[in-house]
Amino acid sequence: MSTHVIVGAGGTGAATARLLAERGDRVRLVTRKGTGPAHPLIDLVRLDALDTEALAELTEGAAALYNAAMPDYTRWPELLPPLYASILLAAEHTGVPYVMLGNLYAYGPSEAPLTEDTPLNPVSVKGRVRADVWRAALDAHRAGRVRVAEVRSGQFLGPGAVSSFSLLAQPKVLAGRLALIDGEPDVPHSYTSTVDAAHALIAVAGSTDDADWGRAWHAPAISATPRELATRLAALTGSPEPRLEALTEREMELLAVSVPFFGELPEMAYMSHKPLHVDATAIEKRFGLRAEDVDEVLRSGL
């Protein structure tokens, strides 16, 4: 029985823990509150991952260390770099293979489909933070201090997903009310099931091929418009035909007064107002992973 250490019990972290436990591996799931899914093989560990020494002690001898941590979205520049630096150091100290859960922010705008070879060209604060933590991990890999890879996902759907669609669209669709979203309803984007992202993390972490490390992988992607997803969701739940409209900048400013999350959306507008396509053929060819059926993903996220 192998032991795996996962930092973060959000949608993907929890899904990764469940998948590993269901196949018979033991999991140490690390969060500041000690929360996560209940399973005999999942040990819920209350620990602040900023405590590098304690995290390294917990990780010693593990098969892999997974970073699925997600600090407060409104405080990324302040919170994310030191947290990721601590997790990286724990991986270096123990020599355990290290897999990061990332996203698409660091690429910047692109009219062509994004591949893992697309240069990082962030145009936002959050994008620069994401690019910086990946480059720091990659430098450590190239220096021989750690074996690292990153799995990059699109906007999350499915169990435990926290995303613009799950927060802004889904509740309104289910209630039969107008959904105001941070983007154009009929512009296609790339979405990722939390479970598909978990499968990708596990596949990469289990690789013994050097060529699979020191690089990024795109998790399996679902290409759809917000309206298409909302329409499928309504059909699955017997809800009224969905109504979606894009939030204006002024509306977001007003909403941000009471809900700071909305103040974080304008800088990422380039991702939600223009088509964003992800090429995930690399992970399909290497590990045989494909995106789950969109109806099943939406159903599992209810």
TrEMBL record:
Coiled coil: none annotated. Residues 6-205 form the NAD-dependent epimerase/dehydratase domain. This is NAD-dependent epimerase. It comes from Actinorhabdospora filicis.
